[in-house]
Amino acid sequence: MRSKALTPEEAYIRLAHLCSGSEQAPLTLERKLLRWGIDEDEAEEILERLKAEGFISERRFAVAFVRDKYRFNGWGPLRLRSELRRLGIPTEFIDEALEELEEEEEHSTYEQVVELLRKKYRTFPQSLEQRKAFDRLMRYGLYRGYEYEEVREATRTILGDDDD
């Protein structure tokens, strides 16, 4: 444990450094400040200062989060929306980020689901029953945050033509 608590200025400097390297959610930063022993009023002042100086932007965070989690984790729109809400991002920024993603992605959501589920299907044992494979793929696709209909269609496509 730390022998001395951080001063508000030290905490500000640490967070400014952190935010200059990557986008951060304000809620995450607030929790970090409270863990460092900064009281709530000072934490709020530090966050306002970081926002005013451009270190924090909920909109920029939402766009970066959506882009990264979609591309690298294969998350769908439902999961992305849920996680951003959990991080306290306003709905307007979530909607903007998801719209921006739709505009810049060359793959449709359906193609993304098919690709994601094909990778998962390749990990299943050859002896797995068709019904169990269907159930596993459905659960996996829904957990990743895709619409039920898209996951069902993608699963049927994969199980119908598993000639890879």
Describe this structure as you would to a colleague.
The protein has 3 domains: 8-52, no CATH class; 58-104; 109-160. The longest helix has 16 residues, at 58-73. By secondary structure, it is mainly alpha-helical. Helix 1 (8-21) crosses helix 3 and helix 7 (109-121) packs across helix 8 (130-143). The chain is built from 9 helices and no strands. The model has no long low-confidence stretch (mean pLDDT 92).
Helices and strands in order:
Blueprint lengths: L7 H14 L4 H10 L4 H13 L5 H16 L3 H10 L4 H14 L4 H13 L8 H14 L4 H13 L4
The biggest beta sheet is recorded as: none
Which outline best applies? Answer: elongated
Number of strands: 0
Summarize model confidence as the mean pLDDT. 92
Beta-strand residue percentage: under 5%
Order of helices and strands: HHHHHHHHH
- Computed over alpha carbons, the radius of gyration is 21 Å
Gap from first CA to last CA: 54 Å
Structural class: mainly alpha
Count of separate structural domains: 3
Q: Give helix % range.
A: over 70%
Low-confidence stretches: none
Number of helices: 9
Q: What would a concise description of this structure say?
A:
With 164 residues, the protein is mainly α. It has 9 helices and no strands.
Keywords:
164 residues; single chain; mainly alpha; 0% strand; 9 helices
